[in-house]
Amino acid sequence: MLELLDDFLLLSYRKSTLGAYHMEPVQLLEIITNIVAELKPESEKKNVAIDIRIPSDFPQLWADREGLNEVFSNLLNNAVKYNGENGAIKVSAKQKDDFIEINVADTGIGIASEDCPKIFDEFYRSANAKLYKIEGTGLGLAIVKEIVEAHDGCISVQSELGKGCKFTVLFPKRRL
User: Fold this and answer.
1) Which residue in 54, 60, 62, 75 is deepest, having the highest Cβ count within 10 Å?
2) Residue 11: its pLDDT value, please?
């Protein structure tokens, strides 16, 4: 119940404070590395390997540091949570035209194609997540979408049941 309340308050806060984002140059690799370090005990417990493929000289993003941390904490936490024993997660980033593309891919339980368009809706949980009895509030990906869109970005998912998910986040390039 406390997790649900925390997520609901965070989503409400993010929706109501669109102008309150503190935009600054942010090093993506630093954010991802810190999150992976925090998730290490849980990933090691399940023997889930996390491969970060972001060059050390990758351009900084013009973003809200706390917001980016929330986005990638949620995506990586989900990737660990929905992965099985001996799974894998790959985080990569590249420059693509006028965008920065960041991918978080896992080898977890996957999402049915009919559920993919709904997973960013508030309180939506896929049947597959319920089947595996994986706990969650159904708000995490709604929070992620809210933050990404507040940065003029977009998020999408590709998935296949039993084969995992790939979340793609696009942020527009900005001059720093």
Assistant:
1) 75
2) 52
The tens digit of pLDDT for each residue in 107-116 reads: 999 999 999 9
Which tokens belong to 24? 């600054």
- Residue with tokens 């904490």, as numbered in its chain: 73
Strand ranges, E, within 8-163? 23-26, 49-53, 61-64, 88-96, 99-106, 154-160
DSSP state, 54?
-
User: At a CB cut-off of 8 Å and minimum separation 6, what does 9 contact?
Assistant: none
H helical segments located in 96-155: 127-131, 140-150
Shortest CA distance to 158 belongs to which of 116, 114, 126, 109?
116
Please indicate, yes or no, whether the overall pTM of this predicted structure exceeds 0.85: yes
Task: Looking at 46-87, list the stretches that DSSP marks H as alpha helix, in order from N- to C-terminal side.
Answer: 65-81
Name the strand (E) or helix (H) holding 171: strand 164-172
As averages over each run of 10 residues, the pLDDT of the chain (176 residues) reads: 48 56 94 98 97 95 94 97 95 94 96 91 75 71 94 96 96 78
Are the beta carbons of 46 and 84 closer than 8 angstroms?
yes
